[in-house]
Write a structure and sequence with these properties.
Layout (H helix, E strand, L loop, with lengths): L2 H6 L2 H6 L5 H11 L8 E5 L5 H8 L3 E6 L2 H11 L5 E3 L11 E6 L10 H14 E12 L1 H6 L4 E6 L2 E10 L2 E10 L2 E10 L3 H10 L2 E7 L14 E8 L2
Helix pairs in contact: 3-4
Length: about 240
């Protein structure tokens, strides 16, 4: 089983990341909304438990969320009370061809695959979901800053669970090993994200028929700086 399928479907993933900043996510979506029209159909690819999708729906947008994790989709469906389409789906496959005006891939939900062919397939599928002149928004970590400031070891205690976390860079992947200790249970998980740069994304997006039209470095949409920015946020447009 691929690491993300196992980890994202685990209850411990949701415990570790339960304190994500919801207000920050909402402000981010509000800032991105300058690129949307009210009538736009939006797909949130690798939507997790649907926090961005749900907020977009509250703002009045027609939204759909897809994710590989059955547990995350179950949570999203419960939160939406059946009002939003959520479906278990592999991002490497097109969901609905030329159906959407906007595709979102947020909170570093890319770069998980071992093979470049899978990266290409995922970006191509994102593009295929879009109508002509649709836009794709990718929110990725700024790999250079992350590597330059890598915290090698960390211990977190949450809901009676101890997480021993270690980080390293290996074969152009930023790797987080997570040892879980809960009562008598001990388990190990891993997060593994490619250290992709703006140049890497330029090549992938160009191959998929997309052109970068904006880049930003944080959720306030300040300019991207490879040395200092926390995020790499890309706005790309689909052309014929």
């Amino acid at each position: 089983m691929e690491w993300f399928a196992r980890w994202f479907n685990s209850k411990y993933y949701h415990i570790l990341y339960q304190n994500r900043d919801e207000k920050e996510a909402e402000n981010f979506i509000q800032n991105l909304s300058q690129f949307f029209k009210k009538e736009d159909k939006i797909i949130d690819i690798a939507c997790g438990a649907g926090r961005h999708t749900l907020f977009l729906s509250e703002l009045g947008y027609h939204t759909t969320g897809i994710d590989l994790s059955e547990e995350s989709i179950k949570t999203a469906k419960t939160k939406s009370k059946g009002k939003i389409p959520f479906e278990v789906w592999d991002m490497r496959e097109c969901y609905k061809k030329q159906e959407f005006d906007v595709a979102l891939n947020l909170f570093t939900s890319f770069g998980y695959f071992e093979n470049e062919e899978d990266d290409i397939a995922a970006i191509k599928a994102m593009s295929d979901n879009l109508k002509e002149e649709g836009i794709l928004i990718i929110d990725f970590l700024n790999s250079k800053k992350v590597i330059d400031n890598l915290a090698q070891k960390e211990i977190k205690e949450m809901d009676g669970v101890t997480f021993n976390i270690s980080r390293k860079v290996e074969d152009n992947f930023i790797i987080k090993n997570i040892e879980v200790n809960h009562d008598e249970e001990k388990m190990s998980f891993q997060e593994k994200v490619k250290a992709l740069t703006i140049d890497d994304f330029f090549e992938l997006l160009t191959f998929a028929g997309l052109t970068i039209i904006n880049t930003f470095g944080n959720y306030k949409l300040d300019d991207f700086n490879q040395q200092t920015s926390d995020r790499l946020i890309i706005i790309a447009k689909k052309w014929n």
